[in-house]
From TrEMBL:
This is Haloacid dehalogenase-like hydrolase. InterPro entries: HAD-like_sf, HAD_sf. The lineage of its organism: Bacteria, Pseudomonadati, Myxococcota, Myxococcia, Myxococcales. It comes from the Bacteria. One of its GO terms (molecular function) is hydrolase activity. Keywords: Hydrolase, Signal. Pfam families: HAD (PF12710). Coiled coil: none annotated. Residues 1-28 form the signal peptide.
Amino acid sequence: MPVGRQALFVVLWLVLGLAFPATARAQAAQADPLPSWSDGPVKQAIVGFVSRVTTQGSPDFLPVEERVAVFDNDGTLWQEKPAVQGAFLAERVRALADKDPSLRKKQPYKAVLEGDLDTLMEGGEKALMELLAATHANMTQEQFLADVREFLKTARHPKLGVPYTQLAYQPMLELLQYLRDNGFQTWISSGGGIDFMRVFSEEVYGIAPQQVIGSSLAEKYEERGGRQVLWREPRVDHLNDKEGKPVGNDLHIGRSPVFVAGNVRSGGDIAMLGASQERRGPSFQLLIHHDDAAREFAYEEKDGASLRAAKEGGWTVVSMRDDWKTVFSGTP
């Protein structure tokens, strides 16, 4: 049956008026490398910097080998209330207490089980090392990694009720990919455990395990049970926090990063952000401010050290409330 002129017009109108604009909208969305970022000074600053350092002939142009971007993890790439490795430690302590109920009355286990941070802090390094020995050490590397994988598979955020791996920040995932698309290496440099983060870094962030820097325990390669294994010892080899971060970055990367991102909480990223400004040539410092109580958690440092350093150094400060259209990669 021949199609009438009016019907043909309707079909053409539907195709041209609906399908083509939809395609155009999809293309426009694809053209925006940071769709979860609100249009404004922060997004413009990021895109402007990347454009300058990747454009041939620009006075700020950087060859690909110098395009190194380093990100803190907790509170920068995913949520840190609670710190995920802290939740892992607490779960391990609960399991130990189930096997040995006497631990429920013994410090520092009692403090962990009761969420008594003040008592835990009073215990100092001795308490920390006892907890690390019980939950992170005196085992093979193989066993530790298996325990972390199992924890991440089953654990849920106590308030948001979803797996921790769904609580990466969507805008930061987009930023990581945007930088990689422009020839940047993306690294993690965190105070968290290097082996803990390497379990999930590639799956969650697209960052290979060998590009993760963190705090570490000493290890030995020795015979255990008739096998040669990597044995985790109960002593800290490197603390990758505060002034330890530039040291860790230099040890693992061998060149100064040009793009560095951290967050406001403990001042742990100030040294790493500041160190990147000491390099010759262009650099970019990004500081995440947790000011969105509705979609995440609102908190900052009592002394305001990170925000003060950002103001003095001219760093770009991200307001989660104002600069991010969405927060999490999953659906809390």
